[in-house]
Amino acid sequence: MNVKHLTVSELTEQIRQSLEGSFSYVCVEGEISNCRPASSGHLYFSLKDSGAKIDAVMFKNRLRSLNFEPKDGMLLRVRGSLSVYAPRGTYSIVCEEMEIAGAGEILAMLEKRKQKLAAEGLFDTEQKKELPRFPSTIGVVSSPTGAAVRDILNILTRRASGIKVIILPTPVQGDDAASLIAARIKQANQWKLADVLIVGRGGGSLEDLLPFSEEEVVRAVAKSKIPVVSAVGHEIDWALSDFAADLRAPTPSAAAELVSENLAVIPDFVRRMIQDFSNAVKTRLDRARLLLKPFDLSDMEYRFRTILQPRLIRLDDAKDELISAISEKCTELRGKIELVSAVIQAGSPLAAMERGFSVVTDSNGKVVRNAAMVKKGDMLCIKPLKGKINAEVTECME
Description:
Largest sheet: 5 strands, mixed, barrel
Low-confidence stretches: none
CATH class of the largest domain: Alpha Beta
Strand content: 15-25%
CATH topology of the largest domain: Rossmann fold
Helix content: 40-55%
CATH architecture of the largest domain: 3-Layer(aba) Sandwich
Radius of gyration: 55 Å
Structural class: alpha/beta
CATH superfamily of the largest domain: Succinyl-CoA synthetase domains
């Protein structure tokens, strides 16, 4: 029996073609282990469950898109393809996408809830309240045994040791956490326990942070009359309480710094303000004295005349120019009036009568303009410039 012999490379190539061709896309869920970032920027790890384990890799160009840091023990869901590494005869998953198992559904649920609450106006900027600059009492709604409370107390002790801190204890994860967090916020408002509230916890998985995204917590934060700072998880983490709060802090430690002025620097700040104010007043007074120095009583009248005299001269010149212009205009108009008067007088009947013309009327008083208007024997009245002449027609010639 003749059996074709294969080299190791040939066999591995056939396996590679078979595996990579059959598993060009896989979606696998499992617990991450042996997580080891390489100096090249790639991430090598394994996915396992109770019965098996498979190697995986995520290259750095895809790793940049993650919004969380993969760590051993996390339950992950990865998408990618199967790849065979021939030199070692091993296969692994080349991951294109990675998310915390269940995170996709949780994020979709949170997005839907976010849109609903936003539509109700719970996240409106107009509802945000200013934080008091120098609060006398700070309330902390968090787990009393958590690292977040320790960090907040350490920072407040260092920065503002005179501020009173009230811990409103509540679990920050689990089924009862949301209702207790909301109850503590309502109690703080009912009894006016603090000037500002810090509501939050330290970092954790997306599931761990869910209580701070429950509706009852978000509504309690939004309705709080006391200003609320939301400090949930690390800087990359978020919860819906961040949107409803008056201010979002990236961490509980940052929240403690935001709600407290550093009392140690206040005296220096006040001294600087006093010095700056004193310098500003002194500068203004020196400038005022410099400006007033030339204006002593002895030469005030001279300076006044120096300022006023040119203006009086300009006023006199303007008056003379105005009178001259009016006079020239009157002369021009007078000449035009005389010319018009001469034209009118030249056309006057009296002017013609002065030259020897007379007005002839018949016995009815009608002006005789044509010889045909009278006949022999008619009586006419001739009116020269002065007097009147009665005449009888003895002959008519046309």
